[in-house]
Structures are given as C-alpha cells and as structure tokens.
Amino acid sequence: MIIETKTSGSKETQKTGGLAKTNDGKQMSKDWLLEGEPSRLQKAGLDNDDIDNIVNGLEENDGSVVRLYAAVNAKGETRFFEIKDKPGSTTDVSVDRAGNEYEF
C-alpha cells in the first residue's frame, strides 16, 4: 500500500484535501511515483526489489499495489479511499470517494 494523506489544501492550485497536479503528473499517478532521479519511491527508502515489485504491480494492475488517499473528516476520523488511474493515463488519477471506504 502506498498512502497519501491530506488534512487541508496547501496551495492555491490545490483544492482542500485534494491531490495536486505537478510537473510529473497528479500526485499518486504512476508517473508521479516513478519520475525523477532518485524517484519518489527511492526517496522513500525502498530498495530496488521493492520498487520493481511496485512498478510491476502498477503495470499489471493486478491488485498487488494499492494506492490510498487518507483524509481526516470534520469529526476527526481518518478515512481511506482507493486511488485509481484515469483510463489510458499514467499521469492522472481519481479518488474513489463514491464507493465505500477502503476495507483493510
């Protein structure tokens, strides 16, 4: 699982608690996770085997890699929702808030 947490917006271009658009793609998109040298996954301290497994899981879309959006609601509860690629895109994602909260 790769989790992005939000409590409030931090920039004018980012709605409150939203995933920001960056030069590398929207936060948590495949390109955003993998771009740069070192990549964000390398910066997170993952070794090459773990990164290869994540890349393969993202490419295969086999459920072995789950990207989650964690947000704190007005009641102070942390809720988790799955982040999914927009069809045909490696730079854009959406948060599935219309579905049920992600079950661990």
Protein described:
The protein is α+β, with helices and mostly antiparallel strands and 104 residues long. The chain has one domain. It is 21% helix and 25% strand. It contains three helices and six strands. It has helices spanning 30-34, 40-43, 48-60; strands at residues 2-6, 21-22, 25-26, 67-72, 78-85, 93-95. A four-stranded mixed β-sheet has the order 1-4-5-6, with no helix packed on it. A hairpin with a 2-residue loop joins strand 2 and strand 3. The mean pLDDT is 86.
Throw out a few tags for this protein:
104 residues, two-stranded antiparallel sheet, alpha+beta, four-stranded mixed beta sheet
Shape: globular
Q: What is the number of E strands? A: 6
Strands side by side in the biggest sheet: 1-4-5-6
- Mean pLDDT over all positions: 86
Number of helices: 3
What percent strand?
25-35%
Q: Give the uncertain stretches in residue-range form.
A: none
Compact overview of the structure:
21% of the residues lie in helices and 25% in strands. With 104 residues, the protein is α+β, with helices and mostly antiparallel strands.
